[in-house]
Specification:
- By secondary structure, the chain is α/β, with parallel strands linked by helices.
- The chain has six helices and six strands.
- A hairpin with a 4-residue loop joins strand 3 and strand 4.
Length: 179
């Protein structure tokens, strides 16, 4: 289930008050294929990525790493559409790597909205490690803070506030303390 994608993608188009419809969780959950792991770049990978992201106006984005920031490491960048999810392995790759170049093209594209929750550390790591400057970002944590006056809420808090299903695994995950 990718309930957060439902929240952020629909919210941009119709507004928070209209999210509460259907099953009471905002919409039916998307059934995605298993995420595709991409750790190198080839003509075949380029064709697959081009097809997957052709014509999209918004993507979901997240990054993972150890002490994710300019001081830590970035290892995985997740980019998703409502139909597919790619886990891009950037661990040990530099700004000139062809796979990072593809990511840069996507993430710096002003025509594609990047939907993310609390992009501060993700953006810092992308900029300092891979020379990627995010463009056209819709940060759901900022959006929630502006609408409610509640700051520093995690994604589950925002989902719960809006009556949407939460990620039950998050609070027990290894990433709970090290975002």
């Amino acid at each position: 289930r990718v309930d957060w994608w439902v929240l952020v993608s629909r919210s941009r188009a119709i507004g928070m008050s209209q999210l509460m419809e259907g099953d009471g969780k905002g919409a039916a959950a998307f059934a995605l294929d298993a995420p595709r792991i991409v750790d190198s770049f080839s003509e075949a990978v380029a064709a697959e990525l081009s097809e997957a992201f052709a014509g999209v106006s918004a993507i979901a984005l997240d990054a993972e790493g150890v002490d994710l920031s300019r001081h830590g490491r970035i290892s995985i960048v997740q980019v998703s559409t409502p139909n597919c999810c790619f886990l891009v392995d950037v661990l040990g790759k530099g700004p000139d790597d062809p796979l990072v170049g593809w990511l840069r093209t996507l993430l710096e594209n002003e025509l594609v909205v990047k939907i993310i929750h609390d992009c501060r550390m993700d953006s810092d790591a992308l900029h300092h490690h891979l020379r990627i400057e995010l463009a056209n970002v819709h940060d759901t944590s900022c959006w929630h803070a502006v609408l409610t006056g509640q700051f520093d809420k995690n994604l589950n808090d925002v989902l719960q506030y809006n009556g949407l299903g939460t990620n039950q695994f998050r609070d027990n995950a290894v990433y709970k303390e090290n975002k």
